[in-house]
Amino acid sequence: DLDECATSPCKDHQYCLNTNGSFSCKACDVSCRGCTGEGSGKCKTCAPGYMKEDEKCTDIDECNLPEKVCVKENQDCINTSGSYKCVCSEGFEDKDGTCVQT
Q1: Percentage helix, strand, coil, to 5, in the chain?
Q2: So what's the architecture of 62-101 in CATH?
Q3: What is the 3 state secondary structure string of 33-53?
Q4: Distances from the Cα of 52 to the Cαs of 15, 30, 35, 40, in angstroms?
Q5: Whole-structure pTM value
Q6: Where is each EGF-like domain found (predicted)?
Q7: CA 30, CA 44: separation in Å to the nearest integer?
């Protein structure tokens, strides 16, 4: 078997999987910026919103950072994979970018 992966035939966000007589390109984990194999432990570097922890790229919980990310009045932070979103607290609704009581 010729190792086609030796010539790096895949795109930056993929890794090469050598198979008998061929190869396939597989998508890197969402936490990766480039990778050498499957999973968050094979990242070349971590994608934005992720950090290296115990040799793996793990989600940064922006809502628990010392500096608040949702700074508007009556707004709550919800952590998402690789990011976060700011939503109006319960009993409030977004009116032109401001959380007003419902």
Answers
A1: 10, 45, 45
A2: Ribbon (2.10)
A3: EEECCCCHHHEEEECCCEEEE
A4: 19, 13, 13, 9
A5: 0.80
A6: 59-98
A7: 12
